[in-house]
Specification:
The chain is an alpha+beta fold and 137 residues long. The chain has 2 helices and 4 strands; from the N terminus they run H-H-E-E-E-E. It has one domain: Glycoprotein, Type 4 Pilin, CATH 3.30.700.10. The protein is 43% helix and 15% strand. The chain is elongated and about 90 Å long.
């Protein structure tokens, strides 16, 4: 009984080729999925900020004053808010006049994507956000 054990080199190369093709198809889709989820998280952060601004207006009959150009400055204007987005993904800003405008600007691989919401609940996304899939909001 002289049976063959193991795999031949050809069989092993076929398996490696199949795995490589599957990885080449799956990896770009996964990357796009992760980036799209980061954009969705930034949208949720903007909605939470808008809710904080409206809450401030209801309590004090005015929107918060002072411009916040960075996420850290924004946390001082809205102390009850903490972004779910990592600071490496999006930077947030607040402009108080007229009403308010909140923006989230992508950084790194998300650069070119800017989301905004204002006091009239008008929501915008730049064309750079479309590269990450359907992120209309």
């Amino acid at each position: 009984m002289n049976g063959q054990r193991g795999f031949t080199l050809i069989e092993l190369m076929v398996v490696v080729a199949i795995v490589a093709v599957l990885a080449a198809i799956a990896f770009p889709n996964y990357t796009r999925y992760v980036q799209r989820s980061k954009v969705r998280t930034a949208q949720a952060d903007l909605q939470a900020l808008a809710a904080n601004a409206e809450s401030h207006r209801q309590r004090r009959l005015a929107y918060p004053q002072g411009t916040a150009k960075t996420t850290d400055e924004l946390r001082t204007v809205f102390p009850g808010w903490a972004p779910a987005s990592k600071s490496a993904d999006f930077g947030f800003a607040y402009a108080p006049k007229p009403g308010y405008t909140l923006t989230a600007t992508g950084t790194g691989r998300l650069s070119g994507c800017t989301l905004a919401i204002n006091a009239a609940n008008v929501r915008t996304a730049t064309a750079g956000c479309a590269a990450f899939g359907d992120v209309a909001w």
